């Protein structure tokens, strides 16, 4: 099926929160950061994080909808440096959306393991410093509802960004989960580093693997 990729809106936040929780919940990170929290509370919190991304001029939040049901089945967040000239897409937020955008962490389910969360963010930030430049695009998030995986939803969002990167002749950096890695290789990314994030250092359990990957633009023929 040829899925259509569109910009997400504030009204989509609840559906994006569900996709975020349901696609990543098998990884160790969520139970480590939100010990004992229900799916419902993590979904609601992830929904409250959406306005912050919508309000960021370098972030392009995209969704894919199933044309049969009208439900959102996947989404992605691309970072495109504003100086590359792609018009930012920043929708006007409701008053409540503006409150969420200012500091979503205030609304996090409790207890939250802030040490694990801060260390996770620092791990991503340090990888970005080691490998990405200010001119690179970045895939900040890609997630497909589990029941829709393997049907081309993720690929449709990847094509949206890869076409832009090829036209601009810029690289794309990302941090892949082991599940995402083969798909990225198919679309032209190469692994530049493997990082094990050991949550036992932060009073939690498990190790999450990440592959730091870069895609060079296709040469213009
Ligand atoms: C990784 C992830 C985003 C991929 O999304 P997806 O929508 O399943 O991706 P696609 O369907 O485009 O591609 C997945 C596979 O299905 C295949 N596929 C694509 N279109 C297809 C179709 N119409 N019919 C059957 N298979 C298809 C692709 O070739 C690919 O095959 P591969 O596994 O051999 O590489 C998704 O699995 C996910 O959300 N995982 C959990 C969260 C996560 O790890 N996110 C990545 C963070 S970096």
UniProtKB/TrEMBL annotation:
PROSITE patterns the UniProt entry points to: GNAT
CDD domains: NAT_SF
Domain N-acetyltransferase: from-to ranges: 3-218
One function term, GO molecular function aspect: acyltransferase activity, transferring groups other than amino-acyl groups
Organism domain of life: Eukaryota
UniProt xrefs under Pfam families: Acetyltransf_7
PANTHER family: GNAT FAMILY ACETYLTRANSFERASE (PTHR42791), N-ACETYLTRANSFERASE DOMAIN-CONTAINING PROTEIN (PTHR42791:SF2)
Protein name from the UniProt record: N-acetyltransferase domain-containing protein
Source species: Penicillium angulare
